[in-house]
Design a protein that fits this description.
- The complex is a heterodimer of chains A (514) and B (328).
- By secondary structure, chain A is of the alpha/beta class.
- In chain A, the strands form 6 sheets. Chain A has a 6-stranded mixed beta sheet, with helices on both faces.
- The longest helix of chain A is centred in the middle third of the chain and has 16 residues.
- The two termini of chain A are 16 Å apart.
- By secondary structure, chain B is mostly helical.
- Chain B has one domain: ABC transporter involved in vitamin B12 uptake, BtuC (Orthogonal Bundle).
- Helices cover 72% and strands 2% of the residues of chain B.
- In chain B, strand 2 and strand 3 form a beta hairpin.
- The chains are: A alpha/beta (514), B mainly alpha (328).
- At the A-B interface, helix 1, helix 3, strand 8, helix 6 and helix 7 of A face helix 9 and helix 10 of B.
Amino acid sequence: MSQTHEATEVSEVAPLAVRMHGIHKAFDAVRVLTDVDFEVSRGEVHALAGGNGAGKSTLMKILQGVYSKDAGTIEVDGHEVDVRSTHDARAAGIGMVFQEFSLVPTLTVAQNIFLGVEPLSRGLIRDREAEARAREVFAQMAVDVDPRAVVGRLGTAYWQLTEIAKALAQDARVLIMDEPTASLARHEADALFELVGRLKERGISVIYISHRMDEVFRIADRITILRDGRRLMTERLVDTTPAEVIEGIVGGAVEGEMAYRRRHSHPGVDAGAPPVLELREVTAGPRVQGVSFSVGAGEIVGIAGLMGSGRTELARALFGIDPIRSGEVRVRGKAVRLGDPRRAIAAGIAMIPEDRRAQGLVLDHSVRDNLLLPLLGRFRSGPLVDDRAARSEARKLVQRFRVKVADDSKPVRRLSGGNQQKVVIAKWLGTGPSVLVMDEPTAGVDIGTKTEILETIRDLADAGMGVVVISSEYPELLAVSDRVVVLREGSVHRVLDRDAIPDENSLQLSVQGA
Amino acid sequence: MATTSSPPATAAQAPPQREGLLQRLDWRRYIIYIGFVVVFAAFAITLGDDGFLSTNNLLNIVRQSAIIAIIAVGMTYVIACAQIDLSVGSTAGLASVVTAMAISSYGLVAGIAAGLLVGLVVGCINGALVSMLNIPSFLVTLGMLGIAVGVAQWITDSAPQPILDPTYNLVFGGGNFGPVPGLLVWMVIVVALGAVGLAKTRFGRQVLATGGNRMAADFTGVNTRRVTFSVLVISSVLAALAGMLYAGRLESGRFQWGSGDELSAIAAVILGGTSLFGGSGAVIGTFVGALLIGLINNGLVLAGLDTSQQQVVRGVIIILAVALARRK
């Protein structure tokens, strides 16, 4: 072990590249960071980990100058710096490789790299020189990217390389990488790790934010774990194990309301009746490859996997948004041809999308109109919509799903996130589907609404519907799923019975593949 | 020094991804030039006997296109920045009457200053509302369209304002420099400055970046509010200049001058290959787009179509050209 991590010994004696000391930060009196210390040596790859809301991204945004700290000091290369803007951070040598890429798709690679710092002669931009210098940077990185290519026409791997080059061209000595492999294919991620290795050799430090333990253990020297806005630990990775790290990230997760309840119906896959949903070797969209599993009537199947594992893409395929290239989908034993959302609805598949604001609701329309949108065909009197019947149906749905709204003619925008989510669910249930696919059903809702939504999911399964819940939140998956399908790199890695999963850590380990 | 990852790769492992893109890109980028040549050739063949190719007629086309071209240069900046300016036509009208009134009361220099000041003031109001208050430019400039033309009509009582200063009329559009129409000179200067400014200066690059991905531009340290403000000011000032050229050419200021020019200018910009969604833009393309519109107008008149028929054919040609230039 010590041999493969020789770099660690070196970094121990190397001078500090970044030292953040005693960082405090609160938003509107809500404490987000409390007395956090964080340091990175020159030429070190330092992983930063923590659950949602642990404060990682706030800490990094302070280092990048996006947020200002309430207290504490930041030193770069031994000098205290006052980072008040992204500009200050860049000047201090902090470079960022954004998760949401910060490139202009209509400009070329070279134009993006030198945006705002273009080489000039007599006030005019020297594009040739910019291209030549971009070529030099890429040569140092030992990657092949055409500086004259328009960024929007390149794949995400190239975007990332361009981002890195942009930082390096501005003399960044510390690079912050936030989930850099999320949108990369395997070989692209490998190339990125090699690049990180080369950057290290040149004395460049990397702060590496990732949920993937295999990656962290592969490339990082040390790890710092934040929990609830405090530093939990900083440890050399040679001195720790994936299980320890995951324990640190997850901590004593809240139990109680989130506990799994064996439902009275819970039939699992009934031997007699065909499953309500069955996938046979389905290959679809950009990522899903040869996925097979089935969902029985009254069963809830959770889908777990890292970002980029094909979770969301699977939902898109089931709902007919991404084309299915091979394999078969059966609903109640009958093979169905998907391919567009209307066919999926007709086949009895309803989907609650991940981004309900963008995909699930017309925010400025009333609760009633949103609820009735998929049902309009049903309330017809002649060519017109039969208003009275429609209204009473809407009222029924509002009551059944306990949507908290006094008047269903109010715009959906005014509702809380949780109530909006209930409207989306109610909207699709009106169509009487056999299968309900939910992508991140509780994203962005408070804990109270979350338990209500989970309860609704259980009710639906009890009523005989097959439910597929896709979620990155393990507690939520464990709270409702009868079985969990673990996806990895677009394929089914494992199918676990709920009883076979003792706790969250073991599910996380299975997902991480550690 | 050993690393945890495999030994440094000697060569790149990224596969090339751009097969055939260049051809497609170029084809779309040059559609406007191809279109120009095709339409020109078609008119030259069918209308050659009606005097289409005479020097006088060709110069006429330039005169008719020049003012639209100048407005469209400003519009290129605005659209490349993912904004829109609907107030340019009215601003031109307002500038024309203000210039005329100021010349008759205070003389030549005051008139020129007053005309440009109109553009500056309108542009600052548009820019401030859009960039500071985040009101969509479509709404702001739609409102300004009404305000500017209303003010122009109000202060003149809807009456034309004659300009009796021969120097003004000579310099601003009425005269020729030798055989070269003055309007051509103005157009060439504005187009040249506009083209270099957008393609070769930091400001131009920031305009494209703001239009292409505003958040990315912000993160990179581009002051996108200032950029948005500036493009609307540029657009209004050029619109005011256009109004002053109308006034010089027609020896009077009138609130109707420039009316409807916003649509011709937007059409010229889009024909020229600038994306309506921002982020890309080419002033030379806009210039050719404006010439193409002038060319079509001229040809249709020579062909003896009446105004109503001209409008129909013009509309069809513009839609066709934009459809061809669209990205698949």
